């Protein structure tokens, strides 16, 4: 994949311009490159300045504003800024008598350039102090010290609030160093970022993870087999807590995306982090998740844990602000609401037929998903397999109760478009499948089922839906071999139809050649029901439907 950056453009400068255009507080300079907060809190006496290579957005320029940074100095992507940029940025905002605190991530280029900038500013008569962040356990033991990563966000958040509370230079430096000392991070990646100009920074094999990865496009010291999210998070949290030791006032926890992880996944990871912390009896004072310090679009995440020595840190962490820094809340205890379980659902007698059906459709999950992927969103096989596995759990003693279990499961437990519609058909068939019922009764049920589907879903034959399999079958007197053959033929016929209902209707002629997955599933379900009721289907072959 390539990126929109052209090699002769400096993405960090263009990005600053974009940020300034979408913010009412950020000012920026293109040469030398830096950005600053135009809305400084009057109580703030110390200028907070930070920076580093670009590619970690929203850090640092996104953290400009009340409660955050005063100056942000980006270098080129993953390259430290030069000291002239840092000096110019600070001079833009420093008023006479101001003091300056530099927050620096531990990378050689950053350390050197911020150190030279500190000397130049001092020579100009400015009081300057530095806080160095070295939190990354993935680089523990390196001769140059641990890398500075996620804890930078925590430190900038806490120092921003403390600076607005009027703290002086020494107090802020002490606070920053104390939080840095008690913070550790670990990051993992399943896939590399995309380099500006295109191409992956590094390759990660299938089923593998880079464990302890950095944020500058370097691989980790260790490549591991993916142990699954549960075990992965457990290992990460355990290593972080082991490194930190006892925390007197609980922990601040930040789950951070590296740029290519969805918010859904980050929230899922957070839930798991909370679980492992609870298992370890490690109290969480606050848990936050989001993308705060990224590595371009790297598909990975980091966890940062701060062991709180002083409750004042928590107050600063939770203080309001006007930036893209985390907006954490105090941790509470959340238990999911459990709906009342319906004890009458299903007969609870296990059904060998439903068990077998659930197994058959579990094996069809991938082929049906593949059909739905070509014409929709790739979940139909999962929906059907889930419905039948839930139906098997409900059980049944005869065809009537088995169909009632299927109907209940599809109506109440399966989403998507197909779940409830199959639920409707099945409940109508179930209604006619009582004692002594034969193929004609089931056929009657199918007819009213199809009517219900057409009433609710509004689909006509020819619209490329399950109706194209169900309606031809329902035209027969009985749910027998001919009816099933008509359903199979109907499903086949959808290959030449464009869709007027459902998601496939967005795809126009691109669906041609592939049968409608709902129609295929409907034909397969009717075949199974007919067989269960004793119909002799001869050598009816349905395998071609899944091609
Ligand atoms: P979703 O499209 O919400 O992901 P599924 O993948 O579970 O739902 O189901 C897709 C199938 O649902 C389609 O293949 C089609 O057969 C059926 N379908 C969609 N809309 C309708 C409708 N209005 N009436 C009848 N069947 C429909
Ligand atoms: Mg679908």
Automatic annotation (TrEMBL):
The DhaK domain, residue ranges: 7-328
A cellular component annotation (GO) from this entry: cytosol
GO BP annotation list: glycerol catabolic process
Residues of the DhaL domain: 348-531
PROSITE patterns xref list: DHAK (PS51481), DHAL (PS51480)
Family matches, as Gene3D superfamilies: 1.25.40.340, Dihydroxyacetone kinase, domain 1, Dihydroxyacetone kinase, domain 2
Keywords: ATP-binding, Kinase, Nucleotide-binding, Transferase
Protein name: DAK2 domain-containing protein
Source species of the chain: Aeromicrobium piscarium
Higher taxonomy: Bacteria, Bacillati, Actinomycetota, Actinomycetes, Propionibacteriales
């Amino acid at each position: 994949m390539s990126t929109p950056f052209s090699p002769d453009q400096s993405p960090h400068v263009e990005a600053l311009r974009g940020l300034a255009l979408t913010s009412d507080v950020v000012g920026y300079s293109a040469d030398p490159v830096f950005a600053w907060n135009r809305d400084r809190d009057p109580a703030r006496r110390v200028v907070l300045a930070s920076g580093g290579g670009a590619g970690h957005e929203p850090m640092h320029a996104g953290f400009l504003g009340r409660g955050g940074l005063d100056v942000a100095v980006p270098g080129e992507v993953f390259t430290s800024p030069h000291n002239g940029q840092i000096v110019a940025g600070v001079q833009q905002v420093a008023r006479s008598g101001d003091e300056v605190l530099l927050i620096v991530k531990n990378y050689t280029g950053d350390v050197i350039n911020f150190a030279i900038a500190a000397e130049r500013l001092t020579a100009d008569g400015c009081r300057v102090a530095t806080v160095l962040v070295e939190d990354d356990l993935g680089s523990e033991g390196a001769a140059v010290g641990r890398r500075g990563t996620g804890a930078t966000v925590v430190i900038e958040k806490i120092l921003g609030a403390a600076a607005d509370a009027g703290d002086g230079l020494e107090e802020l430096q002490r606070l920053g160093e104390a939080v840095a000392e008690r913070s550790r991070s670990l990051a993992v990646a399943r896939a590399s970022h995309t380099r500006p100009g295109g191409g992956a920074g590094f390759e990660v094999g299938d089923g593998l993870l880079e464990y302890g990865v950095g944020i500058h496009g370097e691989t980790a010291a260790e490549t591991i087999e993916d142990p699954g999210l549960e075990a992965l998070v457990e290992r990460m949290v355990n290593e972080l807590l082991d490194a930190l030791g006892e925390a007197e006032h609980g922990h601040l926890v930040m789950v951070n995306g590296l740029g290519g992880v969805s918010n859904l996944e980050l929230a899922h990871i957070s839930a798991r982090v909370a679980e492992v912390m609870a298992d370890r009896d490690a109290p969480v004072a606050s848990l936050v998740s989001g993308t705060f310090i990224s590595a371009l679009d790297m598909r990975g995440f980091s966890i940062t844990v701060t062991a709180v020595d002083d409750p004042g840190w928590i107050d600063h962490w939770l203080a309001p602000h006007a930036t893209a820094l985390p907006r954490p809340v105090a941790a509470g205890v959340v238990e999911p609401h459990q709906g009342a379980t319906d004890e009458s659902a299903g007969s609870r007698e296990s059904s060998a037929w439903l068990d077998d059906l659930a197994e058959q459709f579990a094996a069809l999950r991938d082929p049906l998903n593949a059909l739905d992927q070509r014409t929709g969103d790739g979940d139909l096989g999962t929906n059907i397999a889930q419905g039948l596995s839930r139906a098997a759990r409900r059980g049944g003693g005869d065809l009537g109760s088995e169909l009632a279990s299927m109907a209940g499961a599809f109506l109440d437990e399966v989403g998507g478009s197909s779940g409830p519609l199959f639920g409707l058909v099945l409940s109508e068939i179930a209604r006619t499948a009582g004692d002594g019922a034969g193929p004609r009764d089931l056929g009657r049920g199918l007819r009213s089922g199809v009517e219900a589907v057409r009433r609710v879903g509004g689909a006509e034959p020819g619209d490329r839906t399950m109706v194209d399999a169900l309606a031809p079958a329902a035209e027969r007197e009985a749910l027998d071999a001919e009816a099933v053959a008509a359903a199979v033929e109907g499903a086949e016929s959808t290959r030449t139809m464009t869709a007027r209902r459902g998601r496939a209707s967005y795809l126009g002629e691109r669906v041609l050649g592939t049968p409608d997955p709902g129609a295929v599933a409907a034909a397969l379900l009717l075949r199974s029901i007919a067989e269960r009721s004793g119909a002799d289907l001869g050598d009816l072959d349905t395998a071609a439907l899944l091609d």
